[in-house]
Design goal:
CATH architecture of the domain at 29-52 and 246-268 and 300-399: Beta Barrel
Strand order of the largest sheet: 2-11-15-13-12-16
Number of helices: 4
Radius of gyration: 36 Å
CATH topology of the domain at 29-52 and 246-268 and 300-399: conserved putative lor/sdh protein from methanococcus maripaludis s2 fold
CATH class of the domain at 29-52 and 246-268 and 300-399: Mainly Beta
Strand content: 35-45%
Helix content: 25-40%
Shape: elongated
Largest sheet: 6 strands, antiparallel, barrel
Order of helices and strands: HEEEEEEHHEEEEEHEEEEEEEEEEE
Structural class: alpha+beta
Length: 399
C-alpha cells in the first residue's frame, strides 16, 4: 500500500473539519427550561372562600302583649347588660275574661312556668359543665407549663372551655326569656303590670350590643311584634358558602384561618356545622354553582381597639389536610398521561419522562409517593415540544 502524500492527508483533514462543522451547525440546540427541586417539608391542602361574620346568638325581643309602646331610646351599637330596660309597654284597657279565655291563660301560664323550670335546670347543667371545663383548662395549662401536655391538647381544652362558657351564657339567656314569658302570661291572666306605673318593662335577656331597633317610635303594638334585636358581638361565627365538592372535605372540627378582615393578625376559627343541603348561586361569570354553607366558630379575637362586627367580609382558609416531612414537587411540573401523572426529570442534561404517584395537592405543591427522590430536579411548566431524551439547559430555578 502506497503511503499517502501530505497533500492527500491535508485534504482528508479538511474534509473531516468541514463535516464536523456541518454536523455541529445542524445539531439541534438544547431546549431552555426552568427547573425546580424536589424537596421535603410541610404541606397543607387549603380551601379558600370569602365569608361573612355573624353574631353567634341573636335574640329578637318582641312585645309580650298588645299595648302602647313608649319611644325606644336605644340605637344600634349601644352596649347593654343583662336586665337593662329595653322598652316600656303600656297595657290597653283589659277586657273581662270569660271562663274559656281565663282557662287558656291559666294553661299558658302553667306552660310558661314549666318552661322556666326546664330552662333553669339546663342553666344549672351548663354552669356545672362550664366549671368542669374551666378546671380541666387550669389542669392542662399547668401540665403544659411543666412540659407534660402538648400545645394541641392545650388548644383543645381551651376551645372546649370557651364553648362551655358560650353554652352557659346561652342557657342563662334562655332562662331570662322564659322569665319574660312567665311575666307575659301572668300579665294576660291577671291583667297586672310589672311596676307601679302600669307599664310592662321589657328587659335585655343578655349582655352585649343592640344590633337592630325594629320599632323606634311610640305607638300600638301587637303580641309577638319585633322591637329590638340584641346579641354579643364578642361571640362571633363565620358563615362561608363553599362549592359542594369542597364541602365534602370539610367536617366539624376542621381548623380555619381567618384573613383579610381588616387587621394584621390571622384569626383562628373551628368548623361547627356543615349544612346538609346546598343551594344554587350564579357566579359573576353567569355560571350556576352548587354551594353549601359552612358555619365556623371564631376562637380568637382581634387585638387592641380593632373590633369585628356582624356582617363583615373575611377570607376563610379551611385546612382540610396537612402533613410534615412530605416529599414535595411543584404542581406546575405535573402533567397527565394515559397511565396517570408524570414529570420531566433532568438527568445528564436531558429530559427524562418519569411516571410519578401523586398524593395530596395544594395550589403550588403536590405530595409524591413514588417516582422521585429528594434533590431530583424536574422541569417546571413543561412545553409541548419536550420529548423523552431531548437535551435541555436550565435557564433558572423555580425554587
Amino acid at each position: 500500500m502506497l503511503p499517502l502524500s501530505q497533500k492527500t492527508i491535508g485534504l482528508v483533514v479538511a474534509a473531516l473539519v468541514v463535516l464536523a462543522l456541518l454536523v455541529y451547525g445542524f445539531w439541534p440546540d438544547p431546549i431552555a427550561v426552568q427547573t425546580a427541586e424536589v424537596t421535603r417539608g410541610n404541606l397543607q391542602v387549603v380551601i379558600e372562600e370569602e365569608g361573612i361574620t355573624a353574631v353567634q346568638d341573636r335574640y329578637v325581643v318582641t312585645a309580650p302583649t298588645a299595648g302602647t309602646l313608649h319611644r325606644i331610646r336605644w340605637t344600634a351599637g349601644d352596649s347593654i347588660t343583662t336586665g337593662d330596660t329595653l322598652a316600656l309597654l303600656s297595657a290597653p284597657t283589659a277586657p273581662i275574661l270569660d271562663s274559656r279565655t281565663q282557662a287558656e291563660a291559666s294553661a299558658r301560664l302553667a306552660a310558661a312556668e314549666e318552661g322556666l323550670q326546664s330552662a333553669a335546670r339546663q342553666r344549672d347543667a351548663a354552669e356545672a359543665m362550664a366549671n368542669r371545663a374551666g378546671d380541666e383548662r387550669e389542669r392542662v395549662e399547668h401540665l403544659h407549663t411543666q412540659g407534660s401536655a402538648t400545645r394541641q391538647q392545650l388548644e383543645q381544652v381551651v376551645a372546649e372551655a370557651l364553648q362551655a362558657q358560650a353554652q352557659e351564657a346561652a342557657a342563662r339567656a334562655r332562662v331570662a326569656m322564659a322569665r319574660a314569658d312567665v311575666r307575659a302570661a301572668r300579665s294576660t291572666l291577671y291583667q297586672g303590670a310589672d311596676d307601679a306605673t302600669g307599664d310592662s318593662v321589657i328587659r335585655a335577656p343578655v349582655a352585649g350590643q343592640v344590633l337592630t331597633v325594629h320599632r323606634e317610635s311610640e305607638g300600638p303594638v301587637q303580641p309577638g311584634e319585633p322591637l329590638v334585636e340584641v346579641g354579643d358581638t364578642d361571640a362571633l361565627k363565620v358563615q362561608v358558602d363553599v362549592l359542594s365538592q369542597d364541602a365534602l372535605r370539610i367536617r366539624p372540627g376542621t381548623p380555619v384561618l381567618i384573613e383579610q378582615w381588616g387587621g394584621p393578625d390571622t384569626l383562628r376559627a373551628t368548623v361547627e356545622r356543615v349544612d346538609p343541603d346546598g343551594h344554587t348561586v350564579v357566579s359573576a361569570l353567569g355560571v350556576e354553582e352548587q354551594r353549601v354553607t359552612v358555619h365556623a366558630r371564631l376562637d380568637t379575637r382581634p387585638h387592641g381597639d380593632m373590633r369585628l362586627g356582624s356582617g363583615f367580609r373575611v377570607l376563610a382558609r379551611f385546612i382540610v389536610w396537612e402533613g410534615s416531612d412530605v416529599l414535595r414537587v411543584p404542581t406546575s411540573a405535573l402533567f397527565r398521561t394515559t397511565d396517570g401523572w408524570a414529570v420531566f426529570a433532568v438527568a445528564d442534561s436531558r429530559a427524562r419522562r418519569t411516571p410519578v404517584e401523586v398524593g395530596e395537592r395544594s395550589g403550588l405543591q403536590a405530595e409524591v409517593h413514588s417516582g422521585l427522590d429528594l434533590g431530583d430536579r424536574v422541569i417546571a411548566h413543561p412545553r409541548n415540544e419536550l420529548e423523552d431524551g431531548v437535551r435541555v439547559r436550565s435557564r433558572g430555578s423555580d425554587g
